[in-house]
Amino acid sequence: LFRTIQSNKKLVFLLGRLYLSINSELIFRQNKERLRNIPNVLDDVLVTSQIISKLKWSEVEAAAAFFENQVYSEETRFRYLSETSRVLRNAGFDVEPQTDGSLAVSFEGNSLCKVVKPGGITYRQENLTTPEQERAKDQAFELTKMVSEYMRAMDQGSVVKAAGLSDRYKTLADFNGTLLAATETRFGVQFVTWDWDFNREGLSHGHYFGNDYEAAKQDFATRSHLIDQNRLFTPAQMAIMYQCGEDALNYGLDITYEQEQSIKSVLAQIEEVLPDVVEQSRHQDILINEHFPEFFVGYMHVVSPFSAYSDEITRIKHEIYTHLSLLFACPVV
Question: Could you give the CA distance from residue 327 to residue 288 in angstroms, rounded to a whole number?
Answer without folding.
Answer: 9
